[in-house]
Amino acid sequence: MKVAVSATGQGTEALVDPRFGRCPYFVIYDTDSGSYYAVPNPAQAAGGGAGIQAAQTIVAQGVSAVITGNLGPNAFQVLAAAGIKCYVGAGGTVQEAIEAFRQGKLSLASSATAPPHAGGGWGGGRGGCGGGGQGRGRW
């Protein structure tokens, strides 16, 4: 069985990247032979639609399952439509995640586990843009 793991690097010692759509690499691991290869994620720096692009990349690899930290709704929808099972909550190294998968320790997702645009890092916090703060009255 071929599984894809969202990863920070290209090997089994790389850490699992919890952001499916924005991870730098996917490590494609064959659980039967123990062989693997890395696929760069073309959606890592995408302005929008990263989850969909990343999921399409995975579908093209012919995998049966995905192992990641979290999945947004668009990525989940693409993967589910392709019949790819999604396992979430993975951490540690890619090798540790594969082992957890083999031992049945990962959660099979039945829906998205992250909101849309969760991994973008676009700074959606309360940064000072906009008005209405104290001390802005007339002198």
Q: Can you tell me the CATH architecture?
A: 2-Layer Sandwich
The shape, in one word, is: globular
Helix fraction bin: 10-25%
- Annotation, overall tally of beta strands: 6
Which sequence of SSEs, written as H and E, runs from N to C?
EEEHEHEHE
Whole-number tally of structural domains:
1
Strand content: 15-25%
CA gyration radius, whole angstroms: 18 Å
Q: What is the CATH T-level topology?
A: Nucleotidyltransferase, domain 5
Uncertain segments: 121-139
Work out the helix count: 3
Strand ordering within the main sheet: 3-2-1-4-5-6
Please describe what this structure looks like:
Strands 3-2-1-4-5-6 form a 6-stranded mixed beta sheet, with helices on both faces. The protein has a single domain, classed as Nucleotidyltransferase, domain 5, CATH 3.30.420. The chain is built from 3 helices and 6 strands, in the order E-E-E-H-E-H-E-H-E. Helix content is 21%, strand content 19%. With 139 residues, it is of the alpha/beta class. Mean pLDDT is 86; it is low at 121-139.
List keywords for this structure.
MTH1175_dom; 139 residues; 6 strands; 21% helix; 19% strand; alpha/beta; Di-Nase_FeMo-co_biosynth; single chain; Dinitrogenase iron-molybdenum cofactor biosynthesis protein; DiNase_FeMo-co_biosyn_sf; disordered C terminus; Nucleotidyltransferase, domain 5; six-stranded mixed sheet; 3 helices
Blueprint (SSEs and pairs):
Layout: E1 2-7, E2 25-30, E3 36-40, H1 50-60, E4 65-67, H2 73-81, E5 85-88, H3 94-102, E6 107-108
Helix pairs in contact: 1-2
